[in-house]
Amino acid sequence: MVDVLSQNEIDALLAALSSGEMDADELKKEETQKKVRSYDFKRAVRFSKDHIRTLTRIHENFARYLTTYFSAQLRTFVQINVVQVEQLPYDEFIRSIPKMTVLNIFEAEPLKGRMVLEVNPNVAMAMLDRMLGGAGLAPSKMQGFTEIETTVLERVFSRAFDSLQEAWKTVIDIRPRLESFETNPQFMQIVSPNETIALISLSTKIGDTSGMINLCIPHVVIEPIMPKLSAHHWFVSEKKQSEPIEVEMLKHRLEQAKLPIVVELGQSNITVQEMMQLSIGDVIPLDKKVGEGLSVRIGERLKYFATPGNVKERMAVQIEHVLEEGVEEYDE
To answer: Which residue intervals define the domain Flagellar motor switch protein FliN-like C-terminal in the entry (predicted)?
Structure first.
């Protein structure tokens, strides 16, 4: 902070200069002397404030996508927010997390190296409890994870990396892939202890359970793309997008959604007694003639009429008529 002189101090300084007690040239020399500043090589500054701001913006999007994903998976209230983005030695990060925790070690091609998504055991157990039919509460005493619980958590977090991919799209198109799952930090050594990392801390609330999710990104992993983390590059990339990321993500997931398609040959009403007396070779008359189109339903909605046939010795139908939007049934 810059010191502000009072009027009396200014008058005394001018008087000293006028009387010769102080020399203006000597004052200038003192100002031009190099100031010595201490530097801790164990806490090397690798990320500028601009980089930190950009990482914060990226992972605010990540937190938003992750909230949507976990809310859908757990079917309960989930809230995730970025609390802090800081740089510190990898060894300090390892010493700051619990002795038993959830460590998702992953790679993100084309970046080279490994990163870690650390999930507080309270949050992980609340997720497990919710997915296995509970209310989403964490036990008072942690006793480790069984093989079944580990498998469930692996599947959940491996799909959570899709949210990280979407969040980083404005900078680089990464393909995160879960490499291993650990619960003991002592068995995890992804970089040297003194390597600088970016630590993104996310406060997480699932129902009544709260905890932290930490994303550890070593500097050596994202060093090749550091110029792209400047605010100017990030905003330019964001403006080039024709649609918001949320819309693209929604379109992608809708395109991957599976819908049941049912082709109805026809319908018939028989009594329970008639059904019980059916045997091989019996014929059930349907309400459709041979030349009439077959009803094709998407889910439970009537959408098309089609003609039956064969394609490469397999049964198939050819769409002949498309129903207009909003039409529930079709008068034949």
So the answer is: 253-323
